[in-house]
């Protein structure tokens, strides 16, 4: 199996193994933590969330971090990324202890949501650091392979963590025990980060950069400079726009799916079955992410990155109509798998465009902007869902909107990225590092042997 072979190849690198261990442990802890949140907030007998409630949870969890994103980008480009991985995981462990105290007091007010906001905000910061540090532990020619293996393995670890959390919840019947397990895993991830050298993950500074305080004072000028850097690397910029669209329409579908399992497929007295059904659908999405990691390295050898992204958006549009439009649980599982496959294939490709097309000294800020776009897309989708989705989550009009959004993105992205290549010359680095993209059919042997 190519995925196993690619993973084995990367694992031969000691530094990759160490960064990989941090990612797996961190995201396993995320899975356990998300189960605790879902159990406490969405599937408690005394709570019956509608689209507005879900939108509020997304907004509290993601939008404030998006506002802080540029500031965290400055830190990623000025401070040791190894130290950030260590400190972020340790901070999350402490915050989850605080959340446990709040849950023990049965308080779901502003203090609870503030603690969740901070925990998930640090999580997005952590993932930006992991992505920005990846090019320092693999060769440039291995980035497509690494981008296929690491995020998907992280997602697998997230799902494993979710399974562990669900099992612990079932056995102990206590959200506090699940939160305690989360603390242990986050603390372990922090200690694993210390196996990397302090400056091993960058940033690569030339000595002319302003200090942290000066950089924070001039954040607006820094964002303009980062935007100018992206403007000169249009393929990376278009990739970020594609991710924003993907996250918006995928996020709208996510809100609808939660409502379907909570209020449509099951009744008020079937919360355990509803939770189990949603877990199966979520597992199918995760399986799609995993398969995307197997297929995307091959796909980006046969097609360029921009062609692969376009194709996956088109497939997502079709899948949204059939089978998802049948509105059965079997259709949701199959459709979730296929949409998950498309979403992860697009993400792997965009990650590569950004990592290979952006200078390292800007990479932290760009990935912080990446997360801002990601989060704003999710929150915007949830806000729209609160307005247009019924309490059951079933709406053919919303499904048509999602399908049209995926299709329109495919057309616009294909045209814009093709025009960008034409304007810049046929030999422009389409894939952010490889002429014509990663694998345009007749690539050099060096690229043919990759991932």
Walkthrough of the structure:
- The protein has 451 residues and is mostly helical.
- The protein has a single domain (14-204, 225-433), classed as MFS general substrate transporter like domains (Growth Hormone, Chain: A).
- Helix content is 78%, strand content 0%.
- It has 16 helices and no strands.
- It has helices spanning 2-11, 14-42, 51-76, 81-104, 110-133, 143-172, 175-193, 212-217, 219-231, 234-264, 271-302, 305-321, 329-357, 360-388, 396-424, 445-448.
- Helix 6 (143-172) crosses helix 13, helix 10 packs parallel to helix 14 (360-388) and helix 12 (305-321) packs antiparallel against helix 15.
Number of helical segments? 16
Supply the CATH superfamily name.
Answer: MFS general substrate transporter like domains
CATH topology term? Growth Hormone, Chain: A
Q: Rg from C-alpha positions? A: 21 Å
Report the sheet with the most strands, covering strand number, pairing sense and barrel closure. none
Could you report the average pLDDT, rounded to the nearest whole number? 80
Helix amount: over 70%
Please give the CATH class.
Answer: Mainly Alpha
Question: What is the approximate shape?
Answer: globular
Structural class: mainly alpha
| CATH architecture identity | Up-down Bundle
């Amino acid at each position: 199996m190519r995925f196993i072979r690619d993973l084995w190849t990367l694992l031969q690198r000691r530094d990759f193994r160490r960064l990989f261990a941090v990612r797996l442990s961190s995201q396993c802890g995320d899975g356990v933590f998300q189960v605790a949140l879902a159990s406490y907030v969405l599937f408690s007998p005394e709570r019956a969330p509608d689209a507005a409630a879900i939108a509020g949870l997304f907004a509290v969890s993601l939008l404030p971090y998006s506002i802080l994103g540029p500031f965290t980008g400055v830190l990623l480009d000025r401070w040791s990324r190894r130290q950030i991985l260590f400190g972020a995981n340790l901070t999350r462990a402490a915050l989850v202890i605080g959340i446990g105290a709040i849950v023990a007091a049965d308080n779901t007010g502003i203090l609870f949501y503030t603690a969740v906001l901070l925990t998930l905000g640090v999580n997005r910061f952590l993932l930006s650091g992991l992505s920005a540090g990846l090019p320092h532990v693999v060769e440039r020619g291995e980035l497509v392979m690494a981008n296929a293996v690491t995020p998907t393995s992280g997602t697998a670890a997230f799902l494993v963590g979710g399974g562990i959390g669900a099992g612990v919840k079932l056995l102990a019947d206590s959200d506090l025990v699940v939160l305690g397990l989360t603390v242990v895993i986050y603390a372990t991830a922090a200690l694993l980060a210390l196996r990397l050298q302090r400056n091993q993950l960058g940033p690569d500074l030339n000595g002319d950069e302003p200090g942290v305080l000066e950089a924070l004072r001039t954040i607006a000028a820094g964002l303009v400079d980062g935007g100018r850097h992206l403007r000169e690397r249009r393929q990376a910029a278009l990739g970020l726009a594609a991710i924003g669209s993907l996250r918006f329409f995928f996020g709208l579908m996510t809100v609808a799916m939660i409502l379907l399992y909570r209020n449509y497929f099951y009744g008020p007295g079937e919360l355990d079955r509803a939770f189990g059904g949603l877990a199966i659908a979520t597992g199918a999405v995760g399986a799609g992410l995993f398969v995307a990691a197997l297929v995307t390295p091959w796909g980006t050898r046969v097609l360029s990155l921009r062609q692969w992204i376009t194709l996956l958006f088109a497939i997502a549009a079709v899948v949204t109509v059939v089978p998802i439009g049948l509105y059965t649980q079997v259709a949701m599982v199959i459709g979730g798998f296929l949409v998950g496959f498309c979403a992860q294939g697009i993400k792997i490709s965009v990650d590569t465009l950004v990592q290979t097309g952006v200078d390292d000294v800007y990479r932290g800020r760009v990935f912080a902007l990446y997360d801002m776009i990601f989060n704003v897309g999710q929150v915007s989708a949830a806000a729209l869902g609160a307005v247009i989705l019924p309490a059951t989550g079933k709406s053919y009009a919303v499904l048509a909107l999602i399908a049209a959004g995926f299709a329109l993105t495919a057309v616009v992205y294909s045209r814009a990225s093709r025009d960008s290549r034409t304007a810049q010359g046929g030999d422009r680095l389409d894939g952010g590092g490889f002429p014509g993209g990663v694998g345009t059919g007749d690539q050099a042997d060096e690229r043919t042997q990759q991932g």
